[in-house]
Design goal:
Blueprint lengths: L2 E3 L4 E3 L4 E19 L11 E2 L5 E2 L2 E2 L5 E9 L9 E7 L17 E5 L5 E6 L8 E10 L2 E11 L2 H8 L5 H12 L3 H4 L8 H12 L79 H43 L8 H38 L27 E8 L8 E6 L5 E5 L4 H6 L6 H19 L5 E6 L6 H10 L9 H24 L14 E9 L5 H13 L5 E7 L12 H6 E4 L4 E5 L6 E5 L3 H4 L3 H16 L1
Parallel strand pairs: 1-10, 15-18, 15-19, 16-17, 17-18
Antiparallel strand pairs: 2-12, 3-4, 3-7, 3-8, 3-9, 5-6, 6-7, 8-11, 9-10, 11-12, 13-14, 13-21, 20-21
Helix pairs in contact: 1-2, 5-6, 8-9, 8-14, 10-11
């Protein structure tokens, strides 16, 4: 599978012989530079370019074109070469663009000759730059890896080569442009040669099985129920009206679906300003699906634009370190003032790079914040915050929504920009509300509201939202409270009448509930496998079941623990789901026997905590649960409407 890289990301290479395919929106010049251990290009003979297209292990195109096929054999490059960089530059000539910001983003794929692609990279975020270091291959512990660089230069090819330490870079850049000049009339207007296979590969890399926000051990644990990554047909191309010209790219796969219904019209933007955000501005069969896809598009946009900023800052810091080391090791720095001037110049370049990166980030975040302001009020109850006005007019739905909101996610670069954390319905993983005191909980939780009480309140809020999201009678909540310690938190559920039976207490109650649900799972599994749904016992409750477990593992013996693990593994496929409130340390007496249980559940916390990761660039996100003031006044009215609808249905 092709790995879609983001700026700064690296990836191992499966083979030292590589084909590098380049697709651009306009003719570009392709070159390859070879660098020594210090990252310097010692001379012009270390650069493969149209006037010198072949070097040991490297071969490039002889002309400027929108599509290139470069050949690199990393085993054949000289042993003194430690870095191999792919450089793209716009040719100089009348009628040709002078900056990458005026053309489609260049796309590169790397793979073995006649084999599948190993990695791809779309260079986004370029504006005034006329040359860019696209990729670099570097030695690490005896093996070669590829890194997505995306470092642009407004000064063109000359500035790019000079930054790599090449003397007389301007002369070489002039020679390169002179070499491609005779062929430019033939390449003017050449369309991109990004083939259908490349498009499919890039789309598959971005959408194949990517999970959504995951538990604290990474995103892979929530692959099936936290994002629009289920098996879907390939999305059709976006209409021209969707291809925004703003700083955030709205055309990636998360902004598309296979539905034929077009998104609403986009209001025209004022000259020189980004387009006006529109709620539901994504394709889908319904407004709900369009909003769902739009939220996930915002999530990915925030992840990727922040990754680009962090990568730029890291690059600027590493380059500053190299330049300072070079200045200190240069004997000429001992001359009066020479070393100080070199260090000041290095720091100035560092500040310029980080400042430009921050400007781009702030521009992208401002646009996403503007989109969030129009999307949040338009969300339906299942997607909306508890304090949204839509809950004041809540009605029991006739159809189950496609997703449910569990809280918000944000990054430290803009804490105020919150992305709704949506999980797909029906739940394919259980939920675990961690009642252990994390450092953030110790700082946030007052003494009169201990962690277990906060965790149970959060669990009741999630259970209420699940009940409210399903049609009447299609979702049943059962509660296990072995010691009766959760009575205060469970009061809204008990008073409303949505519970068919009171919370199970004591060892006997725990055993009875688990036995009932285990029997249900066994019977439904047999009916499904034998295609005999009509053979189910008439007294079997076929509604989806949510088992809320308070204060696990208190009140559970070995047999009960085994049954709980069975429900966690087999239950979701037949409509039995877990919502556990537990402190993992309390269950340490069971040893590693419960490790699979924790891994199978999506961990959420009753207070903000940094334990979730996105599927694209692995940022650590802060999870923000629904706060008690948000839902304190809503649980009673919502549960009353759910209970009334259940009573009417049973008549």
């Amino acid at each position: 599978m092709t790995a879609e890289l983001v700026k700064g990301q690296n990836h191992p290479l499966p083979h030292p012989r590589l084909d590098i395919r380049v697709s651009a929106g306009a003719p570009v010049v392709a070159a390859v530079t070879l660098s020594d251990e210090d990252g310097r290009v010692p001379g012009a003979e270390w650069v493969a370019h149209p006037a010198q297209p072949a070097l040991p292990g490297v071969e490039v195109s002889r002309q400027a074109t929108a599509g290139h096929l470069l050949a690199v054999d990393l085993n054949a490059v000289p042993s003194s070469v430690h870095r191999v960089a792919v450089v793209l530059a716009l040719p100089s000539g009348p009628g040709f663009p002078v900056r990458f910001g005026a053309v489609a983003a260049p796309f590169l794929s790397v793979g073995a000759p006649d084999g599948p692609g190993a990695a791809s990279y779309t260079i986004t975020g370029l504006e005034s730059e006329a040359a860019v270091v696209a990729l670099e291959f570097y030695r690490r512990h005896g093996a070669w890896k590829v890194r997505a660089v995306g470092q642009g230069y407004a000064g063109g090819l000359a500035a790019c080569l000079a930054d790599q330490g090449l003397d007389r870079a301007g002369e070489l850049a002039a020679a390169v442009h002179e070499a491609v000049a005779p062929g430019l009339p033939r390449t003017a207007g050449t369309p991109p040669v990004r083939t259908a296979e490349v498009r499919r590969g890039a789309t598959a890399a971005a959408t194949a099985g990517e999970p959504g926000p995951a538990a604290d051990h990474g995103p892979a644990a929530s692959a099936s129920n936290t994002g629009p990554q289920t098996a879907e047909p390939e999305a059709p191309p976006q209409p021209a009206a969707r291809r925004y010209g703003g700083p955030v790219d709205y055309t990636h796969p998360r902004r598309r679906s296979a539905a034929p219904q077009p998104p609403p019209a986009v209001p025209p933007a004022a000259p020189g300003r980004p387009p006006v955000p529109v709620a539901g501005d994504a394709t889908g069969w319904s407004m709900e699906e369009r909003l769902y896809n739009q939220v996930w598009g915002m999530f990915e946009d925030l992840a990727r634009t922040t990754a680009a900023y962090r990568s730029a800052v890291d690059f600027a810091g590493s380059r500053l370190g190299r330049e300072l080391d070079r200045a200190l090791s240069d004997p000429r720095s001992r001359l009066a003032g020479t070393g100080d001037a070199a260090r000041e110049a290095a720091r100035a370049r560092h500040d310029e790079l980080t400042g430009r990166a921050r400007e781009v980030l702030d521009r992208d975040l401002d646009q996403l914040a503007a989109e969030s302001e129009v999307v949040e009020p338009a969300l339906p109850p299942a997607f909306a915050r508890w304090d949204s006005p839509v809950w004041r007019h809540y009605r029991v739905p006739t159809e189950t929504p496609m997703a449910l909101r569990l809280g918000d996610l944000h990054l430290p670069e803009r804490p105020g920009l919150r992305i709704p954390m949506l999980v797909r319905l029906p739940l394919e993983r259980g939920l675990w509300v961690d009642s252990g005191r994390t450092p953030s909980e110790r700082a946030a939780a007052p003494e009169e509201a201990p962690a277990r009480a906060l965790a149970m309140d959060t669990a009741v809020a999630h259970a209420t939202r699940l009940l409210a999201a399903h049609p009447a009678g299609e979702f049943t909540v059962r509660v296990i409270d072995p010691a009766g310690t959760a009575a205060r938190s469970l009061a809204p559920l008990a008073r409303s009448g949505v519970l068919d039976e009171p919370p199970a207490a004591g060892a006997a109650g725990v055993s009875a509930v688990l036995a009932t649900l285990t029997r249900r799972v066994d019977l439904v599994q047999m009916a499904v496998r034998g295609d005999a749904a009509d053979a189910l016992p008439p007294d079997l409750d076929t509604a989806q079941q949510l088992l809320v477990v308070s204060d696990f593992p208190h009140g559970f013996d070995d047999r009960a623990v085994t049954q709980l693990r069975y429900l966690a593994d087999e239950g979701p496929a037949v409509g039995v789901h877990l919502l556990m409130v537990a402190d993992r340390e309390d269950a340490s007496a069971y040893g590693p026997v419960l490790d699979p249980l924790w891994r199978s559940l999506l961990r959420i916390t009753p207070v903000p905590d940094d334990h979730l990761a996105d599927p694209w660039v692995q940022h650590v996100w802060t999870y923000e649960p629904p706060a008690f003031p948000e839902y304190a006044d809503m649980l009673g009215p919502v549960l009353a409407k759910v209970a009334q609808a259940r009573r009417i249905r049973r008549r």
